[in-house]
């Protein structure tokens, strides 16, 4: 019963901000299409690395979703540097993860996290631009592609405001929420479980180096999306993990995993994969020490009191948001995780 109370506290705190993040993500999706990103990043110039890192920070794509987008951008002529910068910045940060960071942690961490994501992406892209001359085989390069379904009606660029307004909700509370539902559910359940089971001050006996080595050993090979990693990081902070070590998990977990590394070798080469992993870990470690220094000397860590005290006196809109979030998560888990295991996928063209 106590675990359910902890779980409900996590939902109450995170739901309003996460729903807002999903809505803003839908707006970004409607106005910043992959085609536009391809045009911005297509030139083989150093400036495209900066643009890719900057554009990738707010775009809400998880590590699984960003691979097809990045491959499309690469095949359309983007450099290894721009492709890598986009690949790193996008899963490490997004409007949804920024909003839930503010809800569960505090404003300083909400600010540091996207800055660190940009820096790691820009650093990796710069190294790629300078040292990686990998080229795609000619047969892998392609121009604009057409979908299998015939186009009907207005295109996205021609759609009026009402169409785009509806599309914000359709994408934010439809496709995007479905995509992250599985991992986000795991993150919230696991975060509440850590809070419930792990003793207070569990990490106080560990040194800073030990903390970071443990997180790197877990975070580099495994994958968890940016939004889902946040409640886990918060639960660990409640048990004594330093803010810097928590930031390390927030940066490394979403940006690296074994399956994506295997796929990327084909598009940026083995050297490119090594450069990316090195850059992510190197910059994340630097920012983890910066974060600890800032919190020790300038900021006071203020995790949401509802999490640490498990208080449940919530406003009606917080309870309503939590219920809506549970419905969205259940819908997404059913559509993306359960239904495909029992029903064959049908073609998207009819």
What does this structure look like?
With 350 residues, this protein is an all-alpha fold. It has one domain (2-135, 166-339). The protein is 73% helix and 0% strand. It contains 14 helices and no strands. Residues 143-158 have low confidence and may be disordered.
List keywords for this structure.
globular; 14 helices; 350 residues; 73% helix
Q: Output the helix-strand order.
A: HHHHHHHHHHHHHH
What's the number of extended β-strand segments? 0
Please summarize the sheet with the most strands: none
What Rg do the Cα atoms give? 20 Å
| Overall pLDDT confidence | 79
* End-to-end distance: 48 Å
Structural class: mainly alpha
> In which range does the helix fraction lie?
over 70%
How many structural domains does the protein architecture include?
A: 1
Low-confidence stretches: 143-158
Work out the strand percent. under 5%
Task: Name the shape in a single word.
Answer: globular
List the total number of helices. Answer: 14
């Amino acid at each position: 019963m106590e675990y359910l109370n902890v779980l409900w506290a996590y939902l109450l705190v995170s739901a309003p901000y996460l729903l807002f993040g999903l809505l803003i993500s839908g707006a970004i999706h409607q106005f910043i299409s992959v085609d536009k990103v391809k045009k911005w990043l297509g030139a083989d110039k150093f400036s495209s690395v900066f643009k890719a890192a900057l554009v990738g920070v707010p775009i809400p794509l998880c590590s699984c979703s960003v691979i097809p987008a990045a491959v499309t951008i690469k095949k359309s002529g983007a450099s290894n540097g721009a492709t890598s910068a986009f690949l790193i910045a996008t899963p490490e940060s997004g409007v949804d993860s920024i909003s839930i960071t503010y809800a569960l942690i505090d404003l300083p961490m909400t600010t540091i996290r996207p800055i660190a994501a940009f820096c790691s992406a820009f650093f990796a892209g710069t190294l790629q631009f300078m040292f990686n001359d990998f080229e795609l085989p000619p047969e892998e390069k392609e121009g604009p592609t057409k979908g299998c379904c015939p186009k009907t009606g207005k295109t996205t660029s021609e759609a009026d405001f009402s169409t785009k307004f509806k599309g914000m909700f359709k994408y934010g509370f439809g496709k995007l929420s479905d995509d992250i539902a599985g991992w986000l559910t795991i993150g919230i359940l696991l975060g509440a479980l850590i809070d419930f089971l792990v003793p207070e001050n569990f990490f106080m006996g560990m040194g800073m180096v030990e903390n970071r080595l443990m997180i790197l050993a877990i975070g580099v090979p495994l994958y968890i999306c940016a939004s889902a990693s946040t409640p886990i990081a918060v639960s660990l902070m409640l048990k004594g993990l330093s803010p810097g070590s928590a930031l390390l998990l927030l940066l490394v977990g979403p940006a690296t995993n074994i399956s994506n590394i295997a796929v990327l070798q084909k598009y940026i080469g083995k050297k490119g994969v090594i450069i990316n992993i090195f850059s992510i870990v190197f910059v994340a470690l630097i920012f983890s020490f910066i974060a600890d220094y800032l919190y020790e000397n300038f900021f006071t860590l203020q995790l949401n009191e509802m999490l640490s005290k498990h208080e449940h006196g919530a406003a009606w809109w917080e309870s309503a948001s939590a219920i809506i979030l549970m419905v969205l998560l259940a819908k997404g888990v059913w559509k993306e995780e359960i239904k495909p295991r029992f029903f064959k996928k049908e073609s998207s063209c009819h």
